[in-house]
Amino acid sequence: MAPIDYLVLPDHTILTLTHTNKDPELVKKIGAATALEVRATGIQYAYAPCIAVCQDLRDKVAACAKHFVGDGGTQNVINENTTIIHRKGLMSIHMPGYFDAIAKGVSTVMVSYSRWNWKKMHANCELLYCI
To answer: What residue ranges carry the coiled-coil annotation (predicted)?
Structure first.
């Protein structure tokens, strides 16, 4: 069997922990490489890291804003853990990116497996349907 060439990029957690997400050019290069790899497979949808809004609709790769909401603030940076924060903090720190992505036409929003103040996001009807 012939070897398969593929590209492995750091996920959003690594980018956050290493502060490379403060380098906009690097983030753009990672996004462009991800889009190229996805298009090469023929897939028209990508579960891209965090929020990625497609700027050129000719790319035909639907953007997905994820992981709604508070995923970046979980205790001890543990996947599927809880983000302990008051509502004002959640709205001012964790929500703006989602509001912006929706306003700019993001195709879908993926709910996080995490929790907000111990309530599972998938069961949080207020945040899912009333915001």
So the answer is: none
